[in-house]
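Case study 2.
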Amino acid sequence: MTSALALKVAARWMSLQAAQSRKADQPPGQRQRAEELTKPINKPKGILPSIVNENARGVEKRHDTVKPDKRDIRPEDVFHGTPNQMGVRNLAETGKDLQKPIEKQIPKDKGYDAVKNLSQYLIRTDGGGGAEPEGRDN
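Prediction:
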């Protein structure tokens, strides 16, 4: 029994050493490219910048078995906050809700005029854009 335990410990130690000596799988600059590709066109309106910056960040004191490489893509690089996710915390910290941004600032966003009537368009056309919807009896 001790030999099986010793083999497990040795195998785990070797896998940890191999993982620590590895290089990051991403090429240089991939974190920045991933962030640029996933970043929303318009910044969240009416929310404190500190709340936006803290979105998707984990607890600082983590006890990872293997320390992440600086080139690894992290959650904060690709998960950008939306007002739905951060609005309650913003209300609790500032006492201001998102009524003004929703009514005044968001309609000024880039691309808003193209999508504001999208749901009504899809309802009127049954989602087919002029074509017959799939699975509907004629």
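The CA atoms of residues 118 and 124 lie 10 Å apart.
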